[in-house]
From TrEMBL:
It catalyses: N(6)-[(R)-lipoyl]-L-lysyl-[protein] + pyruvate + H(+) = N(6)-[(R)-S(8)-acetyldihydrolipoyl]-L-lysyl-[protein] + CO2. Heterodimer of an alpha and a beta chain. Residues 4-179 form the Transketolase-like pyrimidine-binding domain. It comes from Galaxaura rugosa. The lineage of its organism: Eukaryota, Rhodophyta, Florideophyceae, Nemaliophycidae, Nemaliales. It comes from the Eukaryota. This is Pyruvate dehydrogenase E1 component subunit beta. The keyword Zinc-finger does not apply. Keywords: Chloroplast, Metal-binding, Oxidoreductase, Plastid, Potassium, Pyruvate, Thiamine pyrophosphate.
Amino acid sequence: MNKMLMFDALREATDEEMLRDPRVFVLGEDVGHYGGSYKVTKGLHAKYGDLRVLDTPIAENSFTGLAIGAAITGLKPIVEGMNMSFLLLAFNQISNNAGMLRYTSGGNFKIPLVIRGPGGVGRQLGAEHSQRLEAYFQAIPGLKIVACSTPYNAKGLLKAAIRDDNPVIFFEHVLLYNLQENIPKHEYILPLNKAELVRTGQDITILTYSRMRHHVVQAVDELVSQGYNPEIIDLISLKPLDIDTIVKSVKKTHLVLIVEECMKTAGIGAELIAQINETVFYELDAPIIRLSSQDLPTPYNGQLEQATVIHPHQIIRAVEDLMITKKTFY
């Protein structure tokens, strides 16, 4: 096992796949000589050169379109968004080209494309650098969406995304890059369409992903000391949702709490509630509760910024309230 930071795990995954397959290349702003804004591509330019680690102009629509065209020809581009918020400038290319071309070409084209980079609410990065775009992209047909949460799953998921023949939007949280974890020295690949059962339990199912996984784990440590036994599921795959794993858990616990950093209105939690209600509504002993970020642009002010996202004490209170609700009716 090697103890590794998450940005190093992502860099190692990229390096291994570039070494394994000469069709893999990286492009984006400052990915070359500078090594990427968060050093995910550090050292790759010196190893692979200009043709496989391309520094681009500040023109997201142009270089994302270039990457889609390269994917059509059989190459395997990895687009790094310096900040995922900037990829809104390439929304047309992602939705009308990346998501559609395999279908509108009658299957003649494959789009083996990865679009990855930092997102989420950071620390005083301001509204335009703290957006949560997962729900924006979830509505686009033809995309796969993955949110890594640990160095271990970051490496295994990125390698799987690079090898996939479909466009994958790969979300990394800006505050998790310095997270450390032991990673196996041997190669491993993780499935892109499976949730992770982080903790088994009987009392309540807590669904979460990305940075909120760690807030949930903190909250559950306290809840366990109080005698509760929650089950934690890290969604990982935001599109498609691993509804089978979710349903299996709900049939056991009969209570659901969703903890997300996405906006409440039309967020990932909203889609989760819809699918759970469609599938196992009569297994629920109480209405599903979702804890989501405030529906407003993230403030620059540090205290206001913290007030917009969910924290462990709110998770603890929500679990306690749900358990009380269940006891009231049963």
